[in-house]
Amino acid sequence: MLGPVILAASRSDRMRRLISAAPVTKQVVDRFIPGETVDDIVPIVEELTAKGLELTMDVVGEDITTPEQASAARDAYLELIERIAPLGLGDKVEMSVKLSMFGQALDDGHELALANVRPVVEAAAAIGTTVTLDAEDHTTLDSMFAIHEELRKDFPQTGCVIQAYLFRTEADARRLAEAGSRVRLVKGAYKEPAQVAYQQKHEIDKAYVRVLRILMEGEGYPMIGSHDPRLISIAQELARRAGRKLDEYEFQMLYGIRGEEHLRLAAEGHRMRVYTAYGTDWYGYFMRRLAEKPANLRFFARSMVSK
Ligand code: FDA
């Protein structure tokens, strides 16, 4: 019940100001967002990749309001790519981007977001890695998929995310499950209306399995974005039945969630990619992590009270 309330708060400027200013917030935020600057994050990239993990990097931020902020987002990714280039990690470290941060919701936002994301995709390709377009709320997805298709003309390895909770997703999965495509399947983290999305956990989980089957049986490269132990076992079984080798799909989880499982899957020989977010504009990302698990909120509330 708490989840939808927290998700509503994630879009409130008043709550953003309140929570961002709370003195104890940072120590709780650090669990999910382990740095604010490139200088903070490069050592973490080195540490995690040395443990056999792969990464997808997110410079946090979304819902920007000016074209200058969109250019700044592009530049932040370009700086990150420049800083990790000498590490020579290739596609062990890819980028995840939210198009809203690249200007998608501004005037002429579709073109602006495409113009801002393209140099990031080019820079990533130049160091042997890729970019995946995150999926945001359902109103943004037609534009996201069109940008994805456009980018794939020159950079076919560009990935995208699909969300099991949306009714449209089975059809999207069928369209995307073609040779060379990279598709991350997640349950979905936004507050969506019943006209477009399943609302109950068991319905979302069932939809996840249906879509996963389409991806596993298809020709593309499935990226299983979930911490759910049941879905992870089902994914392994579906991969086995589809005759996929260990390097023909990968698991992805968020930094700070089930860290031991990251290492366990990597030790079993799976490709395990950790979605690692950093930056100062962490509010929206952090609130979605609270909404996913009410126990996080209790922990957060306790730390506020005990100070
Ligand atoms: P579920 O929520 O059922 O959780 C399963 C178990 O995982 C829980 O019981 C708990 O143990 C643990 N867990 C999950 N979330 C937790 C949390 N916040 N704190 C502590 N423990 C937690 N969404 C989206 O809409 N667009 C996107 O682009 C992305 N991108 C993305 C990338 C990657 C790599 C991942 C893993 C997830 C996303 N998501 C996302 C988020 C996704 O939609 C979803 O909200 C979360 O992954 C939680 O769903 P689970 O599949 O983990 O299952």
Automatic annotation (TrEMBL):
Tell me the superkingdom of the source: Bacteria
Q: Where do transmembrane segments lie in this chain?
A: none
UniProt-listed SUPFAM superfamilies: FAD-linked oxidoreductase (SSF51730)
E.C. designation(s): 1.5.5.2
Q: In which pathway does it act?
A: Amino-acid degradation; L-proline degradation into L-glutamate; L-glutamate from L-proline: step 1/2
Q: Cofactor(s) for this protein?
A: FAD
Q: Which UniProt keywords apply?
A: FAD, Flavoprotein, Nucleotide-binding, Oxidoreductase, Proline metabolism
The record places domain Proline dehydrogenase at 45-301
The name this protein carries in UniProt is: proline dehydrogenase
Species of origin reads: Streptomyces galbus
